[in-house]
Amino acid sequence: MKLRETKDGSKTLHEQNLDVFYHSVHGALSETRHVYGEMGLLPALERCPKGLLHVLEVGFGTGLNVLDVWSRAKKAERHVVIHSLEPSPLSWEEVSSLDYAALTDVPEEIWRTMHEVGAWQDEWMTFERIETGLFEMDQVEQIYDLVMFDAFAPAAQPELWTTPAMDRMRLALKLGGQLVTYCAKGEVRRAMEEAGFLVRRIPGPPGKREMVRATKMLNRKGRFNVRVYMIVERDAQGGGKEVLVSYERLPMGGVMKFPGGGLEWGEGTSACLRREALEELGQPVDVGPLVHISQRVHLSSFDENHQVLAVHYRATLTSEVSFDDQGELEDVFGKRVPMMHQRLGWRLVKDLNANDFHFASDREAWRAWQNR
Ligand SMILES: C[S@@+](CC[C@H](N)C(=O)[O-])C[C@H]1O[C@@H](n2cnc3c(N)ncnc32)[C@H](O)[C@@H]1O
User: Fold this and answer.
1) What gap in Å lies between CA 321 and CA 335, rounded to an integer?
2) Residue 51 C-alpha to ligand 1 middle, in angstroms?
Protein backbone atom coordinates (compact mmCIF):
# COMPACT_ATOMS: atom_id res chain seq x y z
CA MET A 1 0.00 0.00 0.00
CA LYS A 2 1.68 3.25 -1.13
CA LEU A 3 1.15 6.62 0.53
CA ARG A 4 0.53 9.68 -1.63
CA GLU A 5 0.01 13.32 -0.79
CA THR A 6 -3.08 14.87 -2.42
CA LYS A 7 -3.57 18.47 -3.55
CA ASP A 8 -5.02 19.79 -0.27
CA GLY A 9 -2.04 18.42 1.69
CA SER A 10 -3.91 15.40 3.14
CA LYS A 11 -2.59 11.94 2.25
CA THR A 12 -4.24 8.90 0.70
CA LEU A 13 -3.35 5.30 -0.13
CA HIS A 14 -2.87 3.58 -3.47
CA GLU A 15 -4.38 0.11 -3.90
CA GLN A 16 -1.99 -1.67 -6.22
CA ASN A 17 -4.08 -4.67 -7.39
CA LEU A 18 -6.86 -2.47 -8.76
CA ASP A 19 -4.53 0.51 -9.38
CA VAL A 20 -6.84 2.95 -7.58
CA PHE A 21 -6.56 5.56 -4.84
CA TYR A 22 -8.72 5.46 -1.71
CA HIS A 23 -9.61 9.15 -2.20
CA SER A 24 -9.48 11.90 -4.79
CA VAL A 25 -5.94 12.97 -5.62
CA HIS A 26 -7.36 16.53 -5.82
CA GLY A 27 -7.78 16.43 -2.05
CA ALA A 28 -8.67 13.46 0.15
CA LEU A 29 -9.96 15.51 3.08
CA SER A 30 -11.72 18.04 0.81
CA GLU A 31 -13.56 15.20 -0.93
CA THR A 32 -14.66 13.60 2.35
CA ARG A 33 -15.82 16.91 3.81
CA HIS A 34 -17.72 18.01 0.72
CA VAL A 35 -19.26 14.82 -0.69
CA TYR A 36 -20.11 12.94 2.48
CA GLY A 37 -20.16 15.72 5.09
CA GLU A 38 -21.63 18.87 3.58
CA MET A 39 -23.73 17.23 0.85
CA GLY A 40 -24.64 14.07 2.77
CA LEU A 41 -24.53 14.18 6.55
CA LEU A 42 -25.52 17.82 7.15
CA PRO A 43 -28.71 17.65 5.02
CA ALA A 44 -29.54 14.31 6.70
CA LEU A 45 -29.21 15.89 10.17
CA GLU A 46 -31.53 18.68 9.01
CA ARG A 47 -34.04 16.21 7.55
CA CYS A 48 -34.11 14.25 10.81
CA PRO A 49 -33.68 16.94 13.47
CA LYS A 50 -34.25 14.66 16.48
CA GLY A 51 -33.12 11.24 17.67
CA LEU A 52 -30.55 8.88 16.23
CA LEU A 53 -29.34 9.25 12.67
CA HIS A 54 -28.68 5.96 10.89
CA VAL A 55 -25.96 5.86 8.25
CA LEU A 56 -24.65 3.10 6.00
CA GLU A 57 -21.23 3.56 4.49
CA VAL A 58 -20.22 1.36 1.58
CA GLY A 59 -16.41 1.13 1.73
CA PHE A 60 -14.89 1.90 5.16
CA GLY A 61 -11.33 1.91 3.77
CA THR A 62 -9.12 4.16 5.89
CA GLY A 63 -12.05 5.44 7.99
CA LEU A 64 -11.66 9.09 6.95
CA ASN A 65 -15.37 9.54 6.16
CA VAL A 66 -16.37 8.04 9.51
CA LEU A 67 -13.98 10.32 11.41
CA ASP A 68 -15.52 13.33 9.66
CA VAL A 69 -18.98 12.07 10.67
CA TRP A 70 -17.82 11.74 14.30
CA SER A 71 -16.59 15.30 14.42
CA ARG A 72 -19.78 16.64 12.79
CA ALA A 73 -21.97 14.60 15.17
CA LYS A 74 -20.09 16.05 18.14
CA LYS A 75 -20.42 19.59 16.80
CA ALA A 76 -24.15 19.11 16.20
CA GLU A 77 -24.56 17.30 19.55
CA ARG A 78 -26.23 14.38 17.84
CA HIS A 79 -25.71 10.62 17.94
CA VAL A 80 -25.00 8.80 14.68
CA VAL A 81 -25.31 5.04 14.31
CA ILE A 82 -23.05 4.09 11.44
CA HIS A 83 -22.52 0.70 9.83
CA SER A 84 -19.65 0.58 7.40
CA LEU A 85 -19.14 -2.25 4.92
CA GLU A 86 -15.58 -3.37 4.30
CA PRO A 87 -14.77 -6.81 2.87
CA SER A 88 -11.00 -6.10 2.84
CA PRO A 89 -10.13 -4.24 6.07
CA LEU A 90 -6.87 -2.34 6.18
CA SER A 91 -4.59 -2.81 9.20
CA TRP A 92 -3.80 -0.04 11.68
CA GLU A 93 -0.17 -0.17 10.48
CA GLU A 94 -1.31 0.55 6.93
CA VAL A 95 -3.42 3.58 7.82
CA SER A 96 -1.86 5.17 10.92
CA SER A 97 0.67 7.34 9.08
CA LEU A 98 -2.18 9.08 7.21
CA ASP A 99 -2.67 11.21 10.38
CA TYR A 100 -6.42 11.43 9.84
CA ALA A 101 -7.33 11.70 13.54
CA ALA A 102 -5.38 14.94 13.91
CA LEU A 103 -6.75 16.20 10.59
CA THR A 104 -10.37 15.71 11.64
CA ASP A 105 -9.89 16.63 15.30
CA VAL A 106 -10.88 13.17 16.56
CA PRO A 107 -8.99 11.44 19.44
CA GLU A 108 -6.64 8.90 17.86
CA GLU A 109 -7.85 6.14 20.18
CA ILE A 110 -11.20 6.19 18.38
CA TRP A 111 -9.71 5.78 14.92
CA ARG A 112 -7.33 3.08 16.12
CA THR A 113 -10.12 1.11 17.84
CA MET A 114 -12.28 1.31 14.75
CA HIS A 115 -9.50 -0.41 12.81
CA GLU A 116 -8.27 -2.84 15.46
CA VAL A 117 -11.65 -3.85 16.95
CA GLY A 118 -14.06 -2.90 14.18
CA ALA A 119 -16.44 -1.17 16.60
CA TRP A 120 -16.69 2.02 18.70
CA GLN A 121 -19.30 3.58 20.94
CA ASP A 122 -19.37 6.93 22.73
CA GLU A 123 -21.70 9.89 23.23
CA TRP A 124 -21.66 10.83 19.55
CA MET A 125 -21.34 7.61 17.66
CA THR A 126 -22.14 3.92 17.56
CA PHE A 127 -19.89 2.46 14.89
CA GLU A 128 -19.66 -1.04 13.50
CA ARG A 129 -17.50 -2.25 10.67
CA ILE A 130 -19.25 -5.05 8.79
CA GLU A 131 -16.73 -7.23 7.04
CA THR A 132 -18.73 -8.12 3.96
CA GLY A 133 -19.40 -6.54 0.60
CA LEU A 134 -22.63 -4.86 -0.48
CA PHE A 135 -24.00 -7.99 -2.17
CA GLU A 136 -23.13 -10.25 0.74
CA MET A 137 -24.52 -8.12 3.60
CA ASP A 138 -27.75 -9.18 5.33
CA GLN A 139 -30.65 -7.68 3.44
CA VAL A 140 -32.15 -4.79 5.41
CA GLU A 141 -35.19 -2.68 4.58
CA GLN A 142 -35.78 0.98 5.40
CA ILE A 143 -33.15 1.27 8.14
CA TYR A 144 -30.89 4.12 7.05
CA ASP A 145 -31.33 7.88 6.64
CA LEU A 146 -28.18 8.19 4.55
CA VAL A 147 -25.98 5.98 2.40
CA MET A 148 -22.41 7.19 1.92
CA PHE A 149 -21.54 5.28 -1.21
CA ASP A 150 -17.75 5.29 -1.47
CA ALA A 151 -16.79 2.23 -3.51
CA PHE A 152 -13.75 2.31 -5.79
CA ALA A 153 -14.51 3.91 -9.17
CA PRO A 154 -16.73 2.12 -11.75
CA ALA A 155 -13.70 1.24 -13.91
CA ALA A 156 -12.20 -0.73 -10.97
CA GLN A 157 -15.40 -2.21 -9.48
CA PRO A 158 -18.12 -2.01 -12.17
CA GLU A 159 -20.51 -4.43 -10.38
CA LEU A 160 -20.96 -1.99 -7.48
CA TRP A 161 -22.33 0.75 -9.77
CA THR A 162 -25.05 -1.31 -11.44
CA THR A 163 -28.83 -1.28 -10.98
CA PRO A 164 -28.80 -4.41 -8.74
CA ALA A 165 -26.33 -2.61 -6.43
CA MET A 166 -28.52 0.50 -6.42
CA ASP A 167 -31.60 -1.67 -5.72
CA ARG A 168 -29.94 -2.94 -2.53
CA MET A 169 -28.94 0.50 -1.29
CA ARG A 170 -32.38 1.94 -2.07
CA LEU A 171 -34.03 -0.92 -0.18
CA ALA A 172 -31.82 -0.19 2.85
CA LEU A 173 -32.83 3.50 2.90
CA LYS A 174 -35.87 4.90 4.69
CA LEU A 175 -38.40 6.77 2.54
CA GLY A 176 -37.00 10.26 2.01
CA GLY A 177 -33.45 9.00 2.67
CA GLN A 178 -30.55 9.92 0.42
CA LEU A 179 -27.46 8.36 -1.12
CA VAL A 180 -24.42 10.51 -1.88
CA THR A 181 -21.41 9.62 -3.98
CA TYR A 182 -18.51 11.29 -5.73
CA CYS A 183 -19.20 9.72 -9.14
CA ALA A 184 -21.62 11.48 -11.52
CA LYS A 185 -21.07 9.37 -14.66
CA GLY A 186 -24.08 9.05 -16.97
CA GLU A 187 -24.24 5.26 -16.74
CA VAL A 188 -24.16 5.42 -12.93
CA ARG A 189 -26.98 7.98 -12.85
CA ARG A 190 -29.02 5.81 -15.21
CA ALA A 191 -28.49 2.76 -12.98
CA MET A 192 -29.74 4.81 -10.03
CA GLU A 193 -32.78 6.06 -11.93
CA GLU A 194 -33.54 2.55 -13.07
CA ALA A 195 -33.59 1.52 -9.38
CA GLY A 196 -36.14 4.25 -8.64
CA PHE A 197 -33.96 7.02 -7.21
CA LEU A 198 -34.57 10.68 -7.99
CA VAL A 199 -31.07 11.63 -9.11
CA ARG A 200 -29.59 15.13 -8.90
CA ARG A 201 -26.17 16.30 -10.02
CA ILE A 202 -24.78 18.83 -7.56
CA PRO A 203 -21.45 20.70 -7.41
CA GLY A 204 -18.56 18.35 -6.68
CA PRO A 205 -15.47 18.70 -4.46
CA PRO A 206 -12.32 20.52 -5.68
CA GLY A 207 -11.14 19.03 -8.98
CA LYS A 208 -14.56 17.52 -9.81
CA ARG A 209 -17.34 19.52 -11.40
CA GLU A 210 -20.18 17.33 -10.17
CA MET A 211 -21.20 14.66 -7.68
CA VAL A 212 -24.52 12.88 -7.18
CA ARG A 213 -27.24 12.98 -4.56
CA ALA A 214 -29.99 10.40 -5.07
CA THR A 215 -33.23 10.40 -3.11
CA LYS A 216 -35.62 7.59 -2.23
CA MET A 217 -38.64 9.76 -2.81
CA LEU A 218 -41.26 10.32 -0.17
CA ASN A 219 -44.33 12.24 -1.31
CA ARG A 220 -47.29 12.18 1.02
CA LYS A 221 -49.41 13.84 -1.65
CA GLY A 222 -48.16 11.42 -4.30
CA ARG A 223 -50.71 9.62 -6.48
CA PHE A 224 -50.51 7.23 -9.41
CA ASN A 225 -52.20 8.43 -12.56
CA VAL A 226 -52.88 5.52 -14.92
CA ARG A 227 -53.31 6.54 -18.55
CA VAL A 228 -54.25 4.28 -21.44
CA TYR A 229 -53.28 4.97 -25.06
CA MET A 230 -53.96 3.42 -28.47
CA ILE A 231 -51.50 2.74 -31.26
CA VAL A 232 -53.67 2.53 -34.38
CA GLU A 233 -51.82 1.74 -37.59
CA ARG A 234 -52.99 1.53 -41.21
CA ASP A 235 -51.52 1.22 -44.71
CA ALA A 236 -50.55 4.62 -46.09
CA GLN A 237 -51.74 5.53 -49.60
CA GLY A 238 -48.22 6.05 -50.95
CA GLY A 239 -46.95 2.80 -49.34
CA GLY A 240 -45.65 2.08 -45.87
CA LYS A 241 -47.58 2.41 -42.63
CA GLU A 242 -49.05 5.38 -40.86
CA VAL A 243 -50.12 5.78 -37.26
CA LEU A 244 -52.93 7.78 -35.67
CA VAL A 245 -51.79 10.70 -33.51
CA SER A 246 -53.53 13.38 -31.52
CA TYR A 247 -52.55 17.06 -31.68
CA GLU A 248 -53.68 18.84 -28.53
CA ARG A 249 -53.61 22.48 -27.45
CA LEU A 250 -52.61 22.35 -23.79
CA PRO A 251 -51.55 25.09 -21.37
CA MET A 252 -47.88 24.18 -21.97
CA GLY A 253 -48.30 24.57 -25.77
CA GLY A 254 -49.20 22.44 -28.78
CA VAL A 255 -48.29 18.78 -28.34
CA MET A 256 -48.40 15.57 -30.32
CA LYS A 257 -49.36 12.40 -28.43
CA PHE A 258 -51.13 9.10 -28.84
CA PRO A 259 -54.92 9.24 -28.53
CA GLY A 260 -56.19 8.06 -25.15
CA GLY A 261 -56.50 9.30 -21.58
CA GLY A 262 -56.92 8.62 -17.89
CA LEU A 263 -58.27 5.44 -16.37
CA GLU A 264 -61.47 5.99 -14.42
CA TRP A 265 -62.22 4.28 -11.13
CA GLY A 266 -63.92 0.92 -11.64
CA GLU A 267 -62.86 0.64 -15.28
CA GLY A 268 -60.41 -1.91 -16.72
CA THR A 269 -57.65 -0.67 -19.02
CA SER A 270 -59.21 -2.04 -22.21
CA ALA A 271 -62.65 -0.65 -21.25
CA CYS A 272 -60.90 2.68 -20.73
CA LEU A 273 -59.39 2.55 -24.20
CA ARG A 274 -62.75 1.71 -25.82
CA ARG A 275 -64.36 4.63 -23.97
CA GLU A 276 -61.53 6.96 -25.00
CA ALA A 277 -62.03 5.87 -28.64
CA LEU A 278 -65.73 6.71 -28.45
CA GLU A 279 -64.94 10.08 -26.84
CA GLU A 280 -61.97 11.14 -28.98
CA LEU A 281 -62.59 9.36 -32.30
CA GLY A 282 -66.38 9.16 -32.06
CA GLN A 283 -66.22 5.50 -33.16
CA PRO A 284 -65.25 2.19 -31.57
CA VAL A 285 -61.93 0.37 -31.68
CA ASP A 286 -61.00 -3.24 -31.04
CA VAL A 287 -58.33 -3.36 -28.36
CA GLY A 288 -55.36 -5.45 -29.51
CA PRO A 289 -52.22 -6.70 -27.77
CA LEU A 290 -50.53 -4.80 -24.99
CA VAL A 291 -47.49 -2.95 -26.36
CA HIS A 292 -45.94 -1.35 -23.31
CA ILE A 293 -46.34 -0.29 -19.68
CA SER A 294 -44.14 2.55 -18.37
CA GLN A 295 -40.89 1.26 -16.97
CA ARG A 296 -39.53 4.63 -15.90
CA VAL A 297 -40.83 7.25 -13.50
CA HIS A 298 -42.86 9.91 -15.36
CA LEU A 299 -44.13 12.83 -13.33
CA SER A 300 -47.20 14.48 -14.79
CA SER A 301 -46.60 17.78 -16.62
CA PHE A 302 -49.80 19.03 -14.97
CA ASP A 303 -49.12 18.02 -11.38
CA GLU A 304 -45.76 16.77 -10.14
CA ASN A 305 -47.52 14.87 -7.34
CA HIS A 306 -48.87 12.56 -10.02
CA GLN A 307 -46.71 9.71 -11.26
CA VAL A 308 -47.98 8.64 -14.66
CA LEU A 309 -48.17 4.95 -15.44
CA ALA A 310 -48.95 4.74 -19.15
CA VAL A 311 -50.39 1.62 -20.76
CA HIS A 312 -50.13 1.46 -24.56
CA TYR A 313 -52.21 -1.03 -26.58
CA ARG A 314 -52.41 -1.77 -30.28
CA ALA A 315 -55.95 -1.01 -31.45
CA THR A 316 -57.85 -1.27 -34.72
CA LEU A 317 -60.77 0.68 -36.08
CA THR A 318 -63.83 -1.53 -36.53
CA SER A 319 -65.14 0.47 -39.52
CA GLU A 320 -64.09 3.16 -42.01
CA VAL A 321 -62.72 6.37 -40.47
CA SER A 322 -65.70 8.56 -39.63
CA PHE A 323 -63.89 11.25 -37.65
CA ASP A 324 -61.98 14.33 -38.83
CA ASP A 325 -58.47 12.95 -39.33
CA GLN A 326 -56.94 15.85 -41.25
CA GLY A 327 -55.24 17.45 -38.25
CA GLU A 328 -51.62 18.58 -38.19
CA LEU A 329 -49.33 19.92 -35.50
CA GLU A 330 -49.60 23.54 -36.67
CA ASP A 331 -53.33 23.51 -35.82
CA VAL A 332 -52.67 23.48 -32.11
CA PHE A 333 -50.15 26.32 -32.13
CA GLY A 334 -52.57 28.84 -33.64
CA LYS A 335 -56.14 29.65 -32.77
CA ARG A 336 -57.67 26.97 -34.99
CA VAL A 337 -58.06 24.63 -32.03
CA PRO A 338 -59.41 25.97 -28.72
CA MET A 339 -57.45 25.42 -25.50
CA MET A 340 -57.72 21.82 -24.22
CA HIS A 341 -59.08 20.59 -27.55
CA GLN A 342 -57.55 18.20 -30.03
CA ARG A 343 -57.32 17.28 -33.70
CA LEU A 344 -56.51 13.82 -35.01
CA GLY A 345 -54.18 13.04 -37.87
CA TRP A 346 -51.98 10.34 -39.40
CA ARG A 347 -48.20 10.30 -39.50
CA LEU A 348 -45.98 8.05 -41.60
CA VAL A 349 -44.26 5.65 -39.22
CA LYS A 350 -40.96 5.85 -41.11
CA ASP A 351 -40.86 9.65 -40.71
CA LEU A 352 -41.58 9.65 -37.00
CA ASN A 353 -39.13 9.42 -34.17
CA ALA A 354 -39.59 9.25 -30.42
CA ASN A 355 -38.81 12.93 -29.92
CA ASP A 356 -41.86 13.94 -31.99
CA PHE A 357 -43.96 12.87 -29.00
CA HIS A 358 -44.28 15.47 -26.26
CA PHE A 359 -44.71 13.17 -23.26
CA ALA A 360 -41.83 10.99 -22.06
CA SER A 361 -44.23 8.08 -21.46
CA ASP A 362 -45.23 8.15 -25.16
CA ARG A 363 -41.57 8.35 -26.19
CA GLU A 364 -40.77 5.32 -24.03
CA ALA A 365 -43.68 3.36 -25.55
CA TRP A 366 -42.76 4.43 -29.10
CA ARG A 367 -39.20 3.16 -28.64
CA ALA A 368 -40.47 -0.12 -27.19
CA TRP A 369 -42.88 -0.54 -30.11
CA GLN A 370 -40.20 0.21 -32.72
CA ASN A 371 -37.72 -2.16 -31.05
CA ARG A 372 -40.26 -4.96 -30.63
C1 LIG B 1 -12.78 4.41 -2.20
S2 LIG B 1 -12.41 3.29 -0.94
C3 LIG B 1 -13.27 3.89 0.42
C4 LIG B 1 -12.63 5.02 1.13
C5 LIG B 1 -13.14 5.18 2.52
N6 LIG B 1 -14.51 5.58 2.58
C7 LIG B 1 -12.27 6.11 3.32
O8 LIG B 1 -12.79 7.08 3.88
O9 LIG B 1 -11.09 5.84 3.36
C10 LIG B 1 -13.40 1.88 -1.41
C11 LIG B 1 -13.51 0.82 -0.35
O12 LIG B 1 -14.55 -0.08 -0.71
C13 LIG B 1 -14.16 -1.38 -0.30
N14 LIG B 1 -14.93 -2.38 -1.05
C15 LIG B 1 -14.51 -3.20 -2.03
N16 LIG B 1 -15.48 -4.03 -2.44
C17 LIG B 1 -16.58 -3.71 -1.71
C18 LIG B 1 -17.90 -4.23 -1.67
N19 LIG B 1 -18.28 -5.21 -2.48
N20 LIG B 1 -18.76 -3.69 -0.80
C21 LIG B 1 -18.36 -2.69 0.03
N22 LIG B 1 -17.13 -2.15 0.02
C23 LIG B 1 -16.23 -2.67 -0.83
C24 LIG B 1 -12.70 -1.38 -0.60
O25 LIG B 1 -12.03 -2.43 0.09
C26 LIG B 1 -12.27 0.01 -0.17
O27 LIG B 1 -11.88 0.02 1.16
Assistant:
1) 25
2) 28
Question: Is 149 touching ligand 1 by the criterion CB < 6 Å?
Answer: no
Please identify, among 183, 199, 215, the residue that sits at the C-terminal boundary of a domain: 215
Residue 352: exposure state from Cβ atoms within 10 A (0-12, 13-18, ≥19): middle
Atom of ligand 1 nearest to the CA of 159: 19
pLDDT value for 333: 87
Task: State the pLDDT at residue 273.
Answer: 98
Range of the domain at 124: 2-215
- Dist. CA 66–CA 69, nearest whole Å: 5
Neighbours of 128 (CB within 10 A): 15
Nearest to 149 by CA among 131, 124, 170: 170
Q: Quick one: 7 and 142 in the same domain? A: yes
286 lies in the same domain as 337: yes
Which CATH number is 319's domain given?
3.90.79.10
| Dist. CA 261 → ligand 1 center (Å) | 48
Phi-psi region of 48 (alpha: psi -120 to 50; beta: other; left: phi over 0): beta
On whether both 281 and 189 belong to a single domain, the answer is no
Residue ending a domain, choose from 215, 245, 262: 215
pLDDT at res. 334: 75
Query: How many helices (H) and strands (E) in the chain?
Result: 10, 19
Confirm or reject: Cβ of 295 under 6 Å from ligand 1: no
Q: What is the reported pTM? A: 0.84
Among residues 171, 2, 214, the alpha carbon closest in space to that of 94 is found at 2
| Residues 240 and 172 occupy one common structural domain | no
Minimum CA distance residue for ligand 1 atom 19: 133
Q: What pLDDT does residue 251 have?
A: 86
Structural domain tally of the chain? 2
Q: What is the pLDDT of residue 350?
A: 96
pLDDT of residue 338: 87
- CATH at residue 12: 3.40.50.150
Residues of the chain with pLDDT under 70: none
User: Which ranges of the chain does DSSP label H, i.e. alpha helix?
Assistant: 28-31, 42-47, 64-76, 92-95, 100-104, 108-116, 163-172, 186-194, 269-280, 360-370
